[in-house]
Amino acid sequence: MNHDYRLKISTETDDPAWDKFVAHCPDGHHVQTSLWGQVKATTDWQAIRIIVTKDEQIVSGCQLLIRTIPYVGPVGYITKGPLCDHSDPELAKIILQEVLKVGKDFHLHYMVVQPPNHGAMMNEDLLCCGFRPSWLEVAPTASILIDLSLSNRTLVRDMKRQIRQNIRRSEKRGIRIREGGLADIHTFYLLHLATSERQGFDPYVEEYFVKMWEILAPYGNIKLFLADYLAEPVSALLVAVFKDTAIPKLFGWSGLHGDRRPNEALFWGAIKWAKEAGYRYFDMEGIDPQGARAVADGQPLPESLHNSPTRFKLGFGGEIVFYPQPHDYVFNPVMRWMYRQVSPRIAGWPTVYNKVLDRVRMQ
What we know:
About 40% of the residues lie in helices and about 25% in strands.
């Protein structure tokens, strides 16, 4: 390592200095903060930060989350990191080498790294350190970014006609949008459960949402919006806010009153709030990558996605954006070889892929 740099490994629960660095870093993201590490601790993830300083100032680093997964063993992942000072191209490699050392020290079997939004240049460093492109996306690789500097009239104009009509329909048919608080987290949880039953995924425990609110709300990093019909909560949306971006993180819907279009009204309410609050972007937090590429290339959305969250989100307009692909590393050489043989097959089995991702629950 360059003698001007100093390396530190931190397992502190609260790390204000690191969080300040993340907040000021161009590619800083809420999932790299120690606050988010505290949120993930409620589901047994342990946060470890690898930090590089120069003249006692943080210049690079990342937050690694590790956990033991049943039938898999200890695993780790990094999303939206490492964060680096791009003026020194060696920093990324220094951090990644230290990440692997920490992984070995904690006896990890498997690790995934998904670089920051503008960190595609890190792919070469990942390959040099022994990582390989992964099928397991721990963060979205395609999304929709809505520019909130545009006027409300322009934002509405850029929507699909059906979405515009559904928003107007929701207003006429009695759907009302309101902000929620800690007292509404139980309501959100019930809507989350209803959604998990319909879509067949394992729900989080209620404590996860309570802790998320208690940890993030004092810093203004989370908002809750609910769509009511005649005082009955129909759907709800948890929105993470960090720096200049609002991200709809988690969604729940009872499945009722669909003809009144509560969900279109809910997302539009959150978008309007984010614009009025001064945020620059509303990131839809992921759409299907293949669908995104088809639409970006001027092709129709694949028929398999016609009744999907991807089509719903595309209806709100905005710009399709692509984020760096994940890379993974298997620490045991024999298991590494076996994994390389099997992983392409797993990626081609949607049911197995979704079950594995649901089990890991990395994001």
